[in-house]
Amino acid sequence: MVFAVVRFLHIIAGIVWAGGAILMNLVVGPAIGATGDTGRQFAGHLMTKTSLSKVMLGSGMVTVLAGTYLYGVNSNWFSSGWMQSGQGIGFGIGALAGIIALVFGFMIGNTNGALTALGAQIQGKPTDEQMAKMGMLRKRQVLVTTVNTIATIISIAMMASARFLG
Hints:
Blueprint: H1 2-34, H2 36-49, H3 52-74, H4 86-121, H5 128-161
Helix pairs in contact: 1-2, 1-3, 1-5, 2-4, 3-4, 4-5
């Protein structure tokens, strides 16, 4: 019964987390970037006045913790030959990709926070220093969102297909 409940939590939290990440990374983030000051205002509101960050953090943590428990149970707490089976390897790759997505999700949050703080400091036309810092943060944001998106998609693909790998 515990296994079934944890599996349910893992799946539901994973859907919320992965769906939110992919939507933010591929749709909302680019729209924010394309809409200038209005986009920055929207992003600032989204990050500071809504529960998005808490939902993403909570669902990501539940997904990874529940997944660790499920993998532990299936692998006799990381000590069985199942880990070398096609299924065990598939779930292991999915888990590693999920952990990478979680780490890069934290990095996205930190970068978004730094961009929001910088945006709040800009009054009128940004200074050269502010523009340079914004450029650096945007480059970091592109990198971390790209890695997060790829890791999320790999994790989803492996979790969905691992049971068919042998």
